[in-house]
Amino acid sequence: MSRLEAKKPSLCESEPLTSERVRAALSVLKGIVTSCYGPSGRLKQLHNGLGGYVRTTSQSWALLSNLSVTHPVLKILTASVQNQAACFGDCGLFTAILCCNLIENVQRLALTPAAVIRLNKHLLSLCTDYLKSEACGCRIPVDFSSSRILLCLVRSILTSKPACMLTRNEIDHISALILRAFLLTIPEHTEEHIILGKTMIVPLKGQRVKDSVVLPGILIEMSEIQFARLLPFKKADVLKVALFGMSLSGDFSDTGEGTVMVSRGVSLENAVLDQLLRLGRQLVSDHVDLVLCQKVIHPSLKQFLSTHRVIAIDRVGGTLMEPLSKVTGTQPIGSLDSVSPNSYGSVKNVCPAQFGFKHFLHLIPNEVSICSLLLCNRNDTAWDELKLTCQTALHVLQSTIKEPWVLLGGGCTETHLAAYIRHKTHTEPESLLSDEGCTQTDLELIAEAFCSALESLAGSLEHDGGETLTDMKYGHCWSVQAGSPAVVSWADLLSQCGCGLHNSQEELSWSFLKSTRHPIAPDTCLPQTATDSAGSLTVDCLTAKLGGLQVAVETANLILDLSYIIEDKN
Amino acid sequence: MVMAYRVINTRRHVGLQQLSSLAETGRTFLGPVKASKFVVDEQCHESVLISSTVRLLESLDLSSAVGQLLNEAVQAQNSTYRTGTSTLLFLVGAWSHAVEECLHIGVPIPIIVSVMAEGLNSCCEEVVSLQVPVHNIFDHMDNTKTFSGIETFSISLSPFLQVPADTGLVQEKHDLKGVACQSPSIYNLSEAPVKSPKFFKTQAKVEDDEGKSQVLKDRLLAHTCCRKSVLIHSRHFNRTDHQWTHKPDGSVEDGASTPKAYRCEGLIELAAGLSHGDHSSMKLVEAALRLQFQNACMQRDNPTVPFMFDISRIFTCCLPGLPETFSCICPGYITLVSVSTTTVIKALQNQPVRLVLIEGDLTENYRHVGFNKSANIKTVLDSVKLQEDSSEELWINHVLQVLIQFDVNLLLVQGKVSEQLIEKCIHNKRLVIGSVNVKVMQAFAEAAGAVQVAYLTQVNEDCVGEGVSVTFWSSPVDIVDGSNRMAVVLKTEGINLVTAVLTSPVTAQMQAKEDRFWTCAYRLYYALKEEKVFLGGGAVEFLCLSHLQILAEQSLKKGNHAWSGCLINTSSWLASSLPIYRPTVLKCLASGWHKYLSTLVYNSANYSSQLEASSFIQHHLQNARDSGSPSSYVLNEYSKLNSGIFNSGVSNKLEQIPRVYDIVTPKIEAWRRALDLVLLVLQSDSEIITGLGHTQINPQELEGFLFL
């Protein structure tokens, strides 16, 4: 007898943004992301409350993938920020904060969502056009013939994640390693399309950060016993490699449903083992020197291979399969029947290597575009943070090849952009108000909301009660201790702008970000020092920030456009 | 699923408070004289005796986020270096307290972080001047070996001759008394007045003095060796020149950075200096090292390969219930086997035995890791043949056949062994030992020429090892422990394997004794590996303390801007206000060292209160400052054995005081880890608890949580 249960009615919520609950949740989320932002951002301890692993982090990816949010509005927001971070690698917090700021600022205005959305889109394209144009005053071209800007970029990323727990020397060391790893992934011989290689990050926790190294080729971790058996190691010239993507452990392939009846005296295990040993004989007669297997190799097969001086390494793992097949030029063998001489590849050399307490087989391929970054940090939580940061940095360096510019960091791009938009909407409003029925007042209100969202984003870099200023010439971002007397000469109190390009002795004038001021036309020519001085600059990835800007505005538009949420409660 | 979010530092930093209160529990573990703790489980009324940080944290409730992070830091230090955890724990407490002070005064967090990190860096650079090179240790060892010969060694290592009989007996008597009651006669033994009624403290003293006299004897021995060594070396021309350059004073001039170039002369001095009061454990470690060295000298083909102390080839075998004097070091592998194997061992005793090494379990159903058994395969009988044997019996018979075929009498198995098989093997005069460590297997593989296999079917002539001897470990008491097990020695010619037999009359102390042995072993290991040690006894920490004070004063006077570079984010206003806060933060960092040193002095029981100890440190600090150069003050004081600082509290007989040494990298890493943890917690402002509903949080605790 089946029992039917009446369906529950769907739940419909109108104007979700007006509800107190959503507003409160949004402001908590904004508080979380804002407090994490920048080099002095505060860390969050993520754990399950039951004594599990504690992740200390200030990275959007780690934070948002662990947050379990319930309300659809928040889900939209976190999902699009995570998407952004996955695509561009960086600027996740930037996106999240900007989106929250935009929603918050616009809510205060009594405008229809339609008008807001339309104008926001105009402002967004104004920004992106400016950032992509030659006249842009907050971007620096990347000179690939020197390491300076690239190092600045990597260092800016590393310093913005305090949970990595790096000292200055360690930051320099890791920056150099990341840059070297990136350079190793660029193939030496290129045709029309450059296909970048890959950096494999190999964990070595508990060791000093300074012990981290970059090696060309691939490191395959192995047990100490396997390692001991390799020694004394005989160096060969070029080794023939067979790569197996299947298990060679001697178990039977899935028999599916039902039972297989085997008569007594017949051993399936032995039958499979015979098959494996046949494979072994074939490998030996084909003069294979190195057998790599993603999964387990049967001990008897291993014994057989080692008596014939074939190195057999098993349990290589799924993540290494693709790079291994790439560097050795093999097709991973997927079944025992398909082993043919053309499925073998080769490597230039292999050698055993030991780092810390771990043992590796170091594969040096003929053509190197894959490298291994052996990453050390003192404890698990700092290592996890460092790994994520290194991945971000590598990702950002790769996007820099496509768009060889960097944006000024430290809040300067944001304040500069805000100054530019203010100036544009003030001087040429008609170009933005071309078609629809928006008034100039509407435009001014929205532009103010947009600009203050950008400016308070720059202000979010401050976590210790400082205040943010902007100068009236370049529109850069400056910070000052709270409660500084207004009469003193700013030039003495301030030292450098956020990105480090300008110093306070340049006869500038300043005003607080919060105060109302007359729109200025920010100076759009970069000083010569930007491209060649030895000083360290704080810079951001152009691609990631541009992407973040777009995602933030579009997500804010989407959320502002919501008028009903219909939930199926069944 | 709902996520909770809690702000943890509104006004007072809860995380830091938790850290300092957790760390407070480990205060008594600092220094050479450790007070043990009883940890009592209220639910099952079990209690554990604890005298190390790692064991303490194992029995504390660390489910809070900060507790977890602390545990993680201590475990990471322990698994990498096996030492320095007490220092780490104490400094975590001291520095989190210091950081709280800074917060209270209103120093911005980024400034605390950068000044403290840079301050510690500067300290680490400063203390390089207190490093002592450890070279040529093994040249002396070489002499000893050629001089005393192998026979003398094995005799002196046997449990009965290790300590002169009278002293051994005395000690044993007192140990027993200590267990039975705290008799007043114990107090008479220690020369220093002991305030604490805890008998473990007293006992530590007894051990110390005893160890020292032993050290002296050994030193005499070594001395005579050195004199003869010239003659001996003249026969080895390949090494003579090398030796001669060092001979005049027995070691090389090195470490020119120190005003009085300190040297650590010989293993005995090094070991005594690194023992930190635990001479009995260190003596065992030293003996193990000598054995390994001897072995290496006999084995190695080319003498250019330097000898390395291989700590992974040392094992411990704990025999609770026996008096301490039976602790000793033996070549080969010693393990406990069931008494039922007595006859087998007797039969195997006087002949070389052939062995097989099995990785994994030795049971019928065992398959190698990664082998998936299909569930749906059934064996059917096609004929009505009667099934005489079960499959297990068939398997056992097969195993025995293999053993007989290859004439194998000894099986070492890494995993479990089928009980039935063990019995069958005993009947067939074959010994099977399970749960053998991987390293032991490896050592036998090397020395006996065996190859490890996963299944017995893999065995062929090449896999079988030869020439293993099996004997009883000679102990006066036949049955060793309550579970009817006895110790057996397995060894073979030239095996690189040493077992430390650890005994203790008090079962509760067994664990602590083993831990202490390993602590000493790792200390010596790192000293030899790094070829340098620190001057110990708090000298390094003292120099850090006075260095930081000088730094703080300098920056107060000059307000120099050179340091603002230490802030990672130089453009912020924080960079310009850094000089204002710098002296304060440096002083707070220094206060951590101050607390560390005064606790060290207080724990070593020369001062009755923490305050007295603190003013003692203050006094020396003032002297150091007045002298102008703290590092040379430290070196001077260190060379004065009776100065009271750096050598305090270990013994009262001046001429017997060995220098105290400390290991370098593990110590500095412990500092770094401690500070990293404190700064990590300092920079955290909230806890995010994932996957937790409203209902799962205690209503009283609900306050302060926000839900998304």
From TrEMBL, chain A:
GO CC annotations, alphabetized: centrosome; cytosol; kinociliary basal body; nucleus
Keywords in alphabetical order: ATP-binding, Chaperone, Cytoplasm, Cytoskeleton, Nucleotide-binding, Nucleus
Subcellular location: Cytoplasm, Cytoskeleton, Microtubule organizing center, Centrosome; Cytoplasm, Cytosol; Nucleus
Gene3D superfamilies: GroEL (3.50.7.10), GroEL-like equatorial domain (1.10.560.10), TCP-1-like chaperonin intermediate domain (3.30.260.10)
Keyword GTP-binding tagged: no
One MF annotation (Gene Ontology) recorded for this entry: RNA polymerase II-specific DNA-binding transcription factor binding
Gene Ontology biological process terms from the UniProt entry: animal organ development; chaperone-mediated protein complex assembly; cilium assembly; developmental process involved in reproduction; protein folding; system development
Pfam families, per database record: Cpn60_TCP1
Quaternary structure, from the entry: Component of a complex composed at least of MKKS, BBS10, BBS12, TCP1, CCT2, CCT3, CCT4, CCT5 and CCT8. Interacts with STUB1. Interacts with BBS2 (via coiled coil domain). Interacts with CCDC28B. Interacts with BBS12. Interacts with SMARCC1, a component of the SWI/SNF complexes; the interaction takes place predominantly in the cytoplasm and may modulate SMARCC1 location. Interacts with DLEC1.
Family from the record: Belongs to the TCP-1 chaperonin family.
Function: Probable molecular chaperone that assists the folding of proteins upon ATP hydrolysis. Plays a role in the assembly of BBSome, a complex involved in ciliogenesis regulating transports vesicles to the cilia. May play a role in protein processing in limb, cardiac and reproductive system development. May play a role in cytokinesis.
UniProt-recorded name of the protein: Molecular chaperone MKKS
UniProtKB/TrEMBL annotation, chain B:
Pfam families: Cpn60_TCP1
Gene Ontology MF terms: ATP binding
GO BP term, pick one: eating behavior
Signal peptide: none
Any one cellular-component term (Gene Ontology): cilium
InterPro entries linked to this entry: BBS12, Cpn60/GroEL/TCP-1, GroEL-like_apical_dom_sf, GROEL-like_equatorial_sf, TCP-1-like_intermed_sf
Protein name: Bardet-Biedl syndrome 12
Organism name: Oryctolagus cuniculus (Rabbit)
Lineage: Eukaryota, Metazoa, Chordata, Craniata, Vertebrata
